[in-house]
Design a protein that fits this description.
about 35% helix, 11-stranded mixed sheet, Peroxisomal Thiolase, Chain A, domain 1, alpha/beta
């Protein structure tokens, strides 16, 4: 969907880099990875969050929901929405997650087996096990009476949440939306399943464990995280006297109908989502934030999709991958990496693709940013892919006059 521009007036993030978006900005600027080997998972490399922000309204929630509330609170504060008169029916919250409270559910089940259901159960445990509790809690705290939805669509969940908010505002059905997602996959049972799938990078052996588009790439690394944006119609923002942090000017979502677990090798979904997001906008993005998991099949499909979308123009567009920086946050990655892109656009840079040293010769059209680059065209195409053949794209730009 293109043709409409929605303002981004606030953003927030909780990642392995730290409990606020400022910590993420520092990590991007310094090229500082938060990925490390975790002994409790047999040395598997992950990007855990060491400091979960205090969250008064989320004390009864599971870890994933608390992270979403924290990111949403930061975004809400940046948008200066506190204590302002507004129409609560025209504000929405869209929360994306692929696993939701699965880790909490598994721990609850273990407690039931050990102590028995009657002894391990507490009155408000149901809140920890309820998908969408973070968004619902945030909405209740701020009196939101518009749509409040949980979106589960694998690793494109948060991107879909942002896209849903974009469409609702562009259509005029709401004025303001908080959109993003959270994920906490670092639980032994979950990590072991990812290890068994072969998708995770093995021990680094002296090199980087996640190397998107590298000739020697072997897999991805899991990360915890949450990100949230405040999206707002231009008219509503101007009425209350605020300007945009960035502009969201396109969204695409496609299904490849190829495989539940493998991407279409041709990158058909990437091509379709990219075309939808860019549409007739009339200009190339300044750079591309690839999904870039570091898996053999995923990176290859993404390359061929982008090559089909941009053809001979692709070598002129810098490309980066952020998962070596903060891990693959699964359903939250679309929101966390959107915040990262807004920060990078604000800095006028293309973040470095950490860990990658030798671009796969099978990707001759890629101009991968192996080091941080300056970029005069301050706009970015943000891609995400997921199990089930889902592919999404978001087009984010600097505010008019800044680009």
């Amino acid at each position: 969907m293109t043709g409409s521009t929605v303002w981004i007036t606030g953003y927030g993030a909780v990642t392995a880099a730290g409990p606020t978006s400022a910590h993420l900005a520092d990590a991007i600027q310094l090229g500082r990875s938060s990925v490390r080997a975790l002994p409790e998972f047999g040395g598997v490399h992950c990007a855990p969050i060491d400091e979960v922000p205090n969250c008064r309204m989320g004390r009864r929630l599971d870890r994933s929901a608390r992270l979403f509330v924290s990111a949403a609170e930061e975004a809400w504060g940046k948008a200066s929405l506190d204590d302002l008169p507004f129409e609560p029916e025209r504000i929405a919250v869209f929360e994306g997650s692929s696993l939701g409270p699965l880790a909490a559910s598994l721990r609850t089940h273990e407690a039931d087996l050990t102590s028995g259901c009657a002894r391990s159960s507490r009155a408000l445990d149901i809140l920890r096990l309820m998908p969408g509790a973070g968004g619902a809690t945030f909405a209740q705290a701020h009196g939101v009476r518009g749509p409040v939805l949980q979106i589960t669509a694998g690793s494109v969940s948060a991107a879909c949440a942002i896209g849903e908010a974009y469409q609702r505002i562009a259509s005029g059905s709401v004025d303001v939306a908080v959109a993003g997602g959270s994920e906490c996959p670092l639980e032994a049972s979950i990590v072991s399943r990812f290890v068994a799938s072969g998708l995770l990078s093995p021990a680094a052996n002296g090199g980087s464990p996640c190397r998107p588009f590298d000739r020697t790439r072997q897999g991805t690394v899991l990360g915890e995280g949450a990100g949230a944006l405040v999206l707002e119609s231009e008219e509503h923002a101007l009425r209350r006297g605020v300007g945009p942090c960035a502009l969201l000017s396109g969204y695409g979502l496609a299904s490849e109908a190829w495989s539940l677990i493998a991407p279409d090798p041709s990158g058909a979904g990437v091509l379709q989502a990219t075309r939808q997001a860019i549409g007739n906008h009339g200009g190339e993005p300044g750079w591309i934030k690839a999904h870039g998991t570091g898996t053999r099949a995923g990176d290859s499909a993404e390359y061929f999709g982008l090559a089909a979308a941009f053809e001979r123009r692709l070598p002129t567009i810098p490309i980066t991958g952020l998962k070596p920086l903060i891990g693959h946050c699964l359903g939250a990655s679309g929101a966390v990496e959107a915040v990262a892109a807004i920060l990078a656009i604000g800095q006028g840079i293309v973040p470095a693709t950490l860990g990658t040293t030798e671009v796969d010769p099978a990707f001759p059209l890629f101009s991968l940013a192996l080091e941080r680059r300056c970029c005069a065209n301050r706009s970015a195409l943000l891609l995400a892919q997921s199990f089930g053949g889902r592919c999404s794209a978001l087009l984010i730009r600097a505010p008019v006059g800044d680009s």
